[in-house]
Design a protein that fits this description.
- This protein is mainly β and about 500 residues long.
- The chain has three domains: about 5-20 and about 195-345, Cupredoxins -  blue copper proteins (Immunoglobulin-like), CATH 2.60.40.420; about 25-185, Cupredoxins -  blue copper proteins (Immunoglobulin-like); about 370-490, Cupredoxins -  blue copper proteins (Immunoglobulin-like, Sandwich), CATH 2.60.40.
- Helix content is about 10%, strand content about 40%.
- The strands form six sheets. The chain has a seven-stranded mixed beta sheet, with no helix packed on it.
- A hairpin with a 2-residue loop joins β15 (about 275-280) and β16.
- The longest helix has 20 residues, at about 5-25.
- The chain starts with a helix and ends with a strand.
- The structure holds copper (II) ion.
- Copper (II) ion binds near residues 418, 471, 476 and 481.
Length: about 500
């Protein structure tokens, strides 16, 4: 459990390291093109990735239509102060530019691969035609272009993200910098616009002193740990910054959209001295806000929270990630049980605002009736394998009919967590280890803890095709912990 002394000691250590990093000279332009990340005494403000040119620019003038251009290309830029890395970037940025959409938008992304290797762009969590899913079955070769085309259905307002999904190379391409957020808004959003919005994309990395990414050889001890755990980094980034500062005013309510874009790290988020109002997850808002002390967010999951400015003017606190034991005992990192600071939440000196009222009802979530299920599937996740098999592009692992409602029982039979992701279709969790889920929510990924079973209900309402099912620990996915669900039309 949390101990305040440990947290504060760690915060101190992180701040000390932060100061060391800041006192090194800045040698190179930052991802947003500015040449300086601040003086040694200045805080690093949280980079907003939902403002100005950090959006993908919509070049369409037709209402309800979004045309954007996206390029993946090698860049030479500083991810940490004082040293440049050979990164891969979307439109020259790490994280990539945010794609902002409305429900109902018809979207075309003109994508060009300028990388020296094949890639794809997967639109994680979206409902779209199979040829725009960006799965490993649909690589974009170097120098090639592909147009991803999809329409955002009503009810899909929420926070999503995009990332490469090429066969066997997802870990390295995401690690080198290819990931970005998607925000989908609803015309009838129940949360007041006066709740100022922040988008926080979480990622981690290991970078050597010469700027190269620390990818290990499988034969080394660390290589074995990376193979088992998935590659975790000691550097924790929020929007590409390490322990940035986010400003809030006493009494203010902020709406945070948080994406876990890390390859394998599971975050257990908490703000010291404050509770959170959890209002949404992968597929958007809940029916009602839920007050919580902390939120676990596994790889590829998203959360929406309301942060209420309950602190006093001039004070500050910290958003941290608390210890979360997803590991087998023999490969736990040495510091796994230490909390880590992610950002400083600093209260401005302005006098407190009178807090606004948070709506008690957000939006209805349709009920999927288990009595309508035409099949119950068992999915067994073992270390590196699904249903006792490695991924094979030419094999269909599960066949389902278009329009069918099914119950999936996802068993994790080994001693570490595996987050399960289904492409193309959102689902609702029924129960975890037999304990009914307390309320309905739309999900596309669910963490299945060690030796546990999660049951969910899903309807294959549209979009026939071959969809990926896989563990979202990127190393596991690359190792072949993936299968194919084929949704077929009625004969
Ligand atoms: Cu896994």
């Amino acid at each position: 459990m949390r101990t305040r002394t440990v947290s504060l000691a760690l915060l101190f250590a992180v701040v000390a390291v932060g100061i060391l990093l800041l006192t090194r000279p800045s040698l190179s332009p930052t991802p947003d093109g500015s040449s300086d990340r601040g003086s040694p005494t200045a805080d690093i403000p949280l980079s907003s990735i939902v403002e100005g040119d950090r959006f993908m620019r919509n070049v369409s003038t037709e209402p309800g239509t979004v045309h954007v251009a996206l390029v993946a290309a090698p860049e030479h830029m500083a991810l940490i102060d004082g040293v440049r890395s050979d990164v891969y970037a979307f439109n020259g940025r790490v994280p990539g530019p945010t794609l902002e959409l409305m429900e109902g938008d018809r979207v075309t992304v003109r994508f060009r691969n300028e990388l020296p290797e094949p890639t794809t762009v997967h639109w994680h969590g979206l409902s779209l035609p199979i040829d725009s899913d960006g799965s490993p079955l649909d690589p974009v070769e170097p120098g090639e272009e592909k147009h991803y085309t999809f329409t955002i259905p009503t009810g899909f307002a929420g926070t999503y993200w995009y990332h490469p999904h090429p066969h066997g190379a997802t870990t390295s391409q995401v690690t080198k910098g290819l990931y970005g957020a998607i925000v989908i808004r609803a015309p009838d959003d129940p949360l007041p616009e006066s709740f100022s919005e922040r988008l926080l994309v979480l990622s981690d990395n290991r970078i050597l002193s010469d700027g190269t990414f620390d990818f290990t050889e499988p034969t080394t001890a660390q290589g074995q740990i990376d193979f088992q755990n998935g590659r975790e980094g000691d550097l924790l980034f929020v929007n590409g910054e390490i322990t940035p500062t986010l400003e809030i005013r006493s009494g203010e309510i902020q709406r945070w959209r948080i994406v876990n874009a890390a390859a394998s790290r599971v975050y257990r988020l908490a703000i010291q001295g404050q509770t959170l109002l959890h209002v949404g997850s992968d597929g958007g808002l809940f029916e009602h806000p839920v007050e919580v002390d902390e939120i676990v967010i596994a790889n590829s999951e998203r959360v929406e929270v309301l942060v209420r400015g309950t602190g006093t003017p001039g004070s500050s606190t910290v958003l941290e990630t608390l210890p979360y034991d997803r590991y087998m005992p023999q490969t736990r990192p040495a510091d796994w049980n230490q909390p880590r600071a992610l950002l400083t939440l600093r209260y401005s000196d302005e006098p407190p605002l009178t807090p606004e009222v948070v709506p008690e009802t957000l939006r209805p979530i349709p009920y999927l009736d288990p009595a309508d299920a035409s099949a119950t599937r068992e999915i067994v996740m073992a270390q590196g394998m699904i249903n006792n098999q490695l991924f094979d592009m030419d094999r269909v692992d599960v066949s389902a009919r278009l329009g069918a409602t099914e119950i999936w029982e996802v068993h994790n039979i080994v001693g570490m967590d595996h987050p399960f992701h289904l492409h193309g279709f959102q689902f609702q969790i029924l129960d975890r280890n037999g304990v009914p889920e307390p309320f309905r929510k739309w999900k596309d990924s669910v963490n299945v803890p060690k030796k546990e079973t999660v049951r969910f209900i899903v309807r294959f309402a549209d979009h026939p095709g071959k969809w990926m099912i896989h563990c979202h620990i990127l190393d596991h996915e690359d190792q072949g912990m993936m299968g194919i669900l084929e949704v077929t039309e009625e004969e």
